[in-house]
């Protein structure tokens, strides 16, 4: 199973390297379109960067993955909160059960108390 995973990772690496080599041309990445950048006050937000095309593509994929991970983490917050509430309730009930068993076995012999706890 480990070798299959390594083979798949190697195949993905080869595909990514081939894509990177095939898309080495430079592209200009602008934060604002030219018409919007000419509006007074908007020049502060206008940036241009020249990057290889594969870097833009890989960056987009990485940004999408990060956005998806954050979205799922936020979406599952209610489930994690519910599990936490239920775990604290279970701990509270276990403490209460131990106290009740201790009160029940207060006057008994130690051996009989241990047998009651086990059974």
Automatic annotation (TrEMBL):
Residues 45-97 form the Lipopolysaccharide assembly protein A domain. Residues 76-110 form a coiled coil. The chain crosses the membrane at residues 51-71. The keyword Transcription regulation does not apply. One of its GO terms (cellular component) is plasma membrane. The keyword Cell membrane applies. InterPro entries: LapA_dom. Keywords: Cell membrane, Coiled coil, Membrane, Transmembrane, Transmembrane helix. This is Lipopolysaccharide assembly protein A domain-containing protein. It comes from Lutimaribacter pacificus.
């Amino acid at each position: 199973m480990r070798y299959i995973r390594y083979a798949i990772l190697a195949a993905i690496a080869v595909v990514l390297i081939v894509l990177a080599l095939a898309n080495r041309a430079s592209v200009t990445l602008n934060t604002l379109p030219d018409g919007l950048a000419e509006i007074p006050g908007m020049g502060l937000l206008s940036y241009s960067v020249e990057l290889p095309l594969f870097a833009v593509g890989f960056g987009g994929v990485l940004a999408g993955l990060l956005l998806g991970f954050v979205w799922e983490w936020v979406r599952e917050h209610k489930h994690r909160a519910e599990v936490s509430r239920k775990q604290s309730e279970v701990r509270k009930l276990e403490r209460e059960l131990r106290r009740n068993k201790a009160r029940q076995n207060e006057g008994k012999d130690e051996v009989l108390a241990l047998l009651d706890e086990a059974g």
